[in-house]
Each structure stands twice: as C-alpha cells, then as structure tokens.
Request: fold
Amino acid sequence: MQKEQTEKITTVYQERYTQFEEDNTFKNIVKDHTITTEKKVPKLGLMIVGLGGNNGSTLTAGLLANRLGTKWVSKRGEQTPNYYGSFTQSATTHVGYKHNAKTNQIEDVTMPIKDILPMVNPNDIVINGWDISGLNLYESCKRAQVLEPSLIEALKEELSAITPQPAAFNGEYIAANQADRADNILSGTNRDKVDQIREDIRFMKNRTEKVVLLWSANTEAFLLPEIQSIEELHQKIDNDADLPASVLYCVAAIEEKILYLNGSPQNTFHPGVVAYAKEQKAFIAGNDFKSGQTRFKTIMSDFIIGSGLRLSSVVSYNHLGNNDGKNLQEEKCFQSKKISKAGVIDDAIKSNPFLYPKGNDVIDHEVVIKYVPFVGDSKRAMDEYSSLIFMNGINTISSYNVCEDSLLAVPLMIDMCILGELFTRMEIDGEALGPVLSFLSFFFKAPITSRDDYIINSFCRQREMLLNFLKAAAGINPDDATLMSYKF
Reply:
C-alpha cells in the first residue's frame, strides 16, 4: 500500500519469513513495516579518491559524454554514449502482470530500475576529488588508455578543466612502485589531512545539495591490529599514528556526515570506524567493487551448487596491465585483494549443508593475479570450476573473459552512488538505514556488516533482496513467483 505525500512516499509493507528453532520446528512470521522515502532528488556531488586513475578518469569522461551527447569515431564507426552495464540505468525488473484483451494472454510488466523510486540522473552528477597525481583529467584519460582517443579529444576542453585536489598519502600501505605518481600530496599531521579533506568536502557541498565520497584509489595493505573503539580511533589520529590514507578519508566523510563508499578491499571499516559512523549518523558501504570475474564467480557458484552439484575446486587467474595490476604486484596489497576475492562463494557453500557438512565444507580455491603491462586495462580472466557429480564423477567448466576492466567497474560506481544517495533518504519504521548500507552489498566482493546487521554474499539473493526492497518502498508487491493465480 502506498500513500503519496507532497514531500515523501510512504508505504506499508508486510514482510513474511519463516523462523526455525533449534529443534527444527518453525513458525511463519508476518511483520508490518512502514517505509518512507523523501521524494526530492538532490543535486549530487561525487568526490572520488583516485580521481585521476583509470576508474575515476573514465567515469568522469563517461558522465560528460552522456551529458553532452558527445559522439566519436572508432574503427567500428560512429559511436554514441550510453550507460550499458549500469544496474540502475540499463536493467529492468519484473513488477507484475497484465491481461492483453486482444490476445487473451497474460503478459509480464517490467520497469526500468531507475523509474521505481525518485533517483539521481547520472548526467546531473557533479564530479571532483583527489589524486596523488596532479595531472588534469584530459592527461589522465590519455595515460589510462581506456577510452578511444577521438572521444578524449572531443572532451578535451571539459576534461582539462578538472584537476584533482592534493591527496592524503601513506606509501607504507601501497606498493613502492606508486611513488613515481605521487606529486600531488597533502602535508601535515593526520588531523591536518582530515581537516583539509573536510574543507574540500564542504567546498563541494556549497556547489551541490548532497555529497558522496568514493574510494577508487590503490588497494592498500590491511591495517592490523584493527582499531576497536572510537576512543582508539581518535587517539591514533591525534597522536599522528601510522594510518592508511583510506582511514583518514573515511573519518573526514563521517565527520561531514556523508556517505563513504569503499571500492577497494582493504579493511578501512574497523570496528571503531563503524561505531564512529553510527555515532555521527553517517553512512558507509563496501568493500571492493564486484564487477567482472568475481561477479561471474558468484553466479557460477549459485548455479552449480543450486543444481545439486558439489563444487570442489575453483581456480581463478587473471592478468592485466593497468595501474591496479601494477600496485597488486606487491604482496601486502595482493593479500587484501585475495581475501576479498576468496570469500565470495562462502554463502553459496553454507547454503547446502548436505553437500558441505561441517568438517567437510572447505574447497580448493586459488586466486592468482599477474601484472602484464602490454595488455593495459584489457584484463584477461580465466576460471576453472570443478565439481563432483553423480557417482563421484567430475565435471569441469572453464571460462575465459577479456574486458576493459574500468568499463565494467565504472557503471557499478555510478549505481552505488545513485542507490546509496537514495538510501540516505529512506527510513524503515522511523529509523535510518545506516550506518552500514547493506542493501548495496550486491555491488561489493566483501560486503561489510555491523554487529546488528545480517549480510548475504550471493548474487541471486543479493539481487532479489535489493529489487524487492525497492519495490516494497514503491508500494509494488514483490513476486512470490509461484504463478498459482495464472496456473489454475
């Protein structure tokens, strides 16, 4: 049920689920929830850490091309901009049925996801951010070698006008081979850097109505031991302790009460950081963009285990030549990436205790990443999935994928900013969704959780959860998919 109001959309949704007890008895639960969504779509500012990197420069050029309707010529002829690969802009969802009187047939009704609730138009997003390299975005796009040169030249004036702000930098947490890019660095203590980042955010706030901060910079090494409390976090900042740059950006975002999205796998969201976000009523989500090879892995594990086969070995290899691959050459950075990639099939395994009983629920899972400069941003990804089948036979499925890495990642960056902003305008039973926006877990390899939240990391369930929530907030009943009314 939906009640349209001048400033808000209010719906009452009846949640239904089954709760099991220890003895496997169960009861069906029905709960009513009131979901409210502010209708006003703000002018959104997106601030990217790593603005001059492959992802940041490609995103900026892509938004400009779509906004301006820029056309360009490639060897395949004249090209026009689009948002292919974006969940919000290019995907649809089933929302119901209708009867076609002419054919006397039942037809599906689908709706673009961007039309379910009031969302930001990506063409209207204002871009700025930070980078350890001081090149303007025109030079950064040429360096990245992702987009066609003719498109970059067509956008030269607009891209040349955007120069990243000086960035916080701690070389101890990224590969030493990044030092030659680091010519645009903030100086001072930890607190000085946090304050300068906050000042940059406030400058963007003055140009827009709401700001999202997105980390798309280098993968950092893990910070261990983790920061356990707000007091410890403040102590480390005030005493100028050795902290990775991502923590400083996250603290600045929290203190400015804006959404912070972590697109890399490092453990930025320490318990003390999550607690601070909750105290300040800020929003966070992450970790690590789930775009190509890893997203495919979650689909494949869902498919194989969901078919009743015992997935027993997954070996993933990829090589790439962009700066991300260069940074991952160093073991401390690669380990962060390996951890996020390795955990994406855990929920699929846990879903079937028959195939994976306790004590026999570990499979062979290997992840290899190699840096090959010649291939640039065009990643080569190879995966092998081996499963036990009937009478202990073996079935092996192999895949080989070639893609421009940044052209897969950028649409996800757009989606998580648009949906993240939307979720900051929503409440369930009078409570905000934060601090962890777990409905964004669909877009991350290793989605984080707070202690009182429940996260799933399975492609099909994540997608269903996200879509059903959007439908419920719009007053559209999620399908139960039985089709009983149309079968009998």
Summary: The first helix runs from residue 54 to 68. Residues 44-86+118-290+407-473 form a domain with the Rossmann fold fold (CATH 3.40.50.720). The chain has two domains: 44-86+118-290+407-473, 293-404. The mean pLDDT is 92.
